[in-house]
Amino acid sequence: MLQIRNLTKKYGKFTALDNLNLTIDQGQIFGFVGPNGAGKTTTMKIVAGLLRPDSGQVYLDGIEQKEHIKEFKERIGYMPDFFGVYDNLKAKEYMEFYASIYGIEGEQSRKLSLELMDLVGLSDKADSYVDSLSRGMKQRLCLARSLIHNPEFLILDEPASGLDPRARYDMKEIIKELNKRGKTILISSHILPELAQMCTNIGIIENGKMMVTGTVEEIMTTRGTASPLVMRFVNGQEKAIEILKENELVDNITIRDNSVSILFKGNEEEEAMLLTDMIKNGAYVNYFSREESDLESLFIQITGHTEQDTGEA
Amino acid sequence: MKINPVYKKELRIGVRTIKTALIILGYNGLLALFGLFAFYATFEYGSRYGGTVNYAKVLELYAIIAAVEFGLVLFTVPALTAGSISGEREKQTLDILLTSKLTPMQVILGKLASSISIMILLAFSSLPIISLVFSIGGVTFLDLLEFMALIIITAIYIGSIGIFFSCLFKKTTAATVSTYGALLFLTLGTFFIIAAIVILKDMKAAALVTQTDYIRKSPDAGYWILILLVNPAMTCFSMIENQIGTGSRLVTFLREFGVTSDWIESNWFFISAAIQGVLSLIFIYFSSRLLNPLKEKRRFKKKD
């Protein structure tokens, strides 16, 4: 289990992480979502031991990071958002180099390297030079590399960025397979629908603060009330809008063609009262429902950013 | 014995590049050019136009070849080490190394060892050229071993400075310029310091003579002369002087421009090698601190 407690990191005057708290249980695929500069990569780098936080602690299975950095690193596999490869090194040699760092040498190293390359679908590229591989292949090789010491916890920073749809699908399947094999995974991405399909839990970060965490279903349910309430009228739309404007629970009114969309802070009973009120005042309502929320609209609601705005943090 | 993984990887990559082959070719080519020219000038040219060969002076052939080889070492080591860490940073491979089980010290030592290995390879590949001096005698195999030791010590010394700057700066260019700057300071700057002290003292003495009219003693830099112990060129000079039996030139220089003792004068090579060894350890220690992401530090970087 990963626990992040009161993590704060500042770059000069800019606060990248502001008292961030996060818990990731064993076996989860935790999707880390946030707009550009929200603090995703900073958090991941701190957990991977690449950045020193100004304050706060990180624990993995009760092991405190700063005090036991060596043990901590042995339990973590890290794949950065941007990474390079060595020229003049073959894929299997690349794997064997990292294996040797963990004391895995000789036949054992060769066997393990080939097994992991097979897992990520690169067994036929073992003798190819790393710099000759495509971006998708390099991403998969880097993922295989992060598994060389059999870590229990994987940190994958934007693993699918820059990949074509096919390579993205392959990466997603590999990540699911790794989770089945018992790996706990922290993954960041700005491709939200993919995270929703893959992750057991998500966390939305904004301005270095964790805005919301939970399973995808939990977040949809608890935040569902914030989804727009959409209504359509056969007649009496103007009258209905007047009523909506007077209602204190209505935040925002958007009129699109034949429908009216509002942000309504009330509960289900108050929704029913609103509907009754409009009908009583002569509005012919033929559609009245909360818009089904998806991860993307939820993200926009919480952060105020669109998917296109998001990127590496 | 477990070999440092970074060292093994660096060697593997190194021997596959044309760069290493070109460095060996250039290094030995230049050395051979100087060696053969000195050989020609001493024997062929000397006997043809002078009618005689001064065998008392032919040992200077060794001095010339050794000095040229040493100069090439000084010139090559910064190029090999200054990009070692910053290069990994630029290639975006450093983060992955630092999240592995490797400690920053292991990364530093692996990089330094690979650079020294290349220097040893260069030194050994140049042995046939150095062996030119065996044809005239006067230089023993032990002398050559001592020279090899000097090359290794200097490679570690300058290499540790190169790696230090490579950790300090984000860009290889800045690290390379700084390493060559430091090298320039150590080899020439230390002499300038001595010269500056002597000149200032001389000016003061001249003023005193005018005022009090007492007999002037030629000034020296006092104990400041010991700053030359960090100068690798002086270390090389002292070794060659001892080997070819002209050590008195070093003693004369030290006595004229500073204050030393007989013990320091006669053990200059070993004392300076020891001091440079200690300095190397200090540079390596601070490099590993700079590379450790969890240590509090300040790194110089260009503002975007």
From TrEMBL, chain A:
InterPro entries: AAA+_ATPase, ABC_transporter-like_ATP-bd, P-loop_NTPase
Alphabetized Gene3D superfamilies for the sequence: P-loop containing nucleotide triphosphate hydrolases
One GO molecular-function entry: ATP hydrolysis activity
Residue span(s) of domain ABC transporter: 2-232
Record has RNA-binding as a keyword: no
Keywords: ATP-binding, Nucleotide-binding, Transport
A family per Pfam: ABC_tran
Similarity comment text for this entry: Belongs to the ABC transporter superfamily.
Name the record gives this protein: ABC-2 type transport system ATP-binding protein
Higher taxonomy: Bacteria, Bacillati, Bacillota, Clostridia, Lachnospirales
TrEMBL record, chain B:
Cellular component aspect of the GO annotation: plasma membrane
Membrane-spanning residues: 21-41, 61-81, 116-137, 144-165, 177-200, 268-291
Species per Swiss-Prot/TrEMBL record: Anaerocolumna aminovalerica
Name this protein carries in UniProt: ABC-2 family transporter protein
UniProt-recorded Gene Ontology molecular function terms: ABC-type transporter activity
Keywords of this entry: Membrane, Transmembrane, Transmembrane helix
Pfam families reported in the protein's UniProt record: ABC2_membrane_2 (PF12679)
